[in-house]
């Protein structure tokens, strides 16, 4: 009896120590998450882009979060932060609802199909880690290109299409965004705005931005719920990020007109390119390591 009580007491002490260590760790790491959320929110407020483009790589590279968990958490985080923007644009009547509906008709089904494929690949597996990282690299480079070359692209390739062709093209763009965002959480901002500017040149910029934000809410929500169904969501992390990002968005929005937008976009694009290169380097290193480990086994 005495030995049993001692073992139980030791087990309880070990559990208490483990819980204390975990709480101390979270107290240390939470401020970093809050600061990261604030920094990303500040950029989003000043430029209108950069949420998923910076938050997801930040969680993967800096905090070591599994890519699938980082994407899933960032998707619901984006749905929460963009909802306020969508309400504000709706109140100001700066949303072109036909464009939003067409985008959603393509993006929501594409997102569901993509999530089913990811589920079949096993979101916690190494193959999924590589897939998310590679698609994330592509999405970051595409976002950087749209930031740097948006004006040149619009001036050179702005399309004047008939209404039927515009509607079909918008659905196809929505499908591409649905697939890209569901895998990487990146693309709904800068890439979506550039596509809408090409397809709807007659709309003022405010309505383009409002339409893009309004479409991003259901897309990120559906994709985020899909990742939640597979268990790839860290709710505590999302809450801490929101604590930092919401004030950041408000301050960034207030300071937006005081910061040279062109210079800020170039800095953001350069940062995205560096992050994409870092992710690609990690994947190449992992690939070479796996190849090196397999080669000796094959020789034997």
Structural class: mainly alpha
Name the beta content range: under 5%
The total of beta strands comes to 0
Which H/E pattern describes the elements? HHHHHHHHHH
Oligomer: single chain
> How would the global form be characterised?
globular
Q: Which percent bin holds the helix content? A: over 70%
Mean pLDDT: 79
- Parts with pLDDT < 50 across at least 5 consecutive residues: 19-28
Question: First CA to last CA: what distance?
Answer: 54 Å
Task: List the SSEs and their pairings.
Elements: H1 2-47, H2 51-61, H3 67-91, H4 97-121, H5 126-157, H6 163-184, H7 190-199, H8 205-229, H9 235-255, H10 261-299
Could you please describe the fold and organization of this structure?
By secondary structure, this protein is mainly α. Helix content is 85%, strand content 0%. Helix 2 runs antiparallel to helix 3 (67-91), helix 3 (67-91) packs antiparallel against helix 8 and helix 5 runs antiparallel to helix 10. The longest helix has 46 residues, at 2-47.
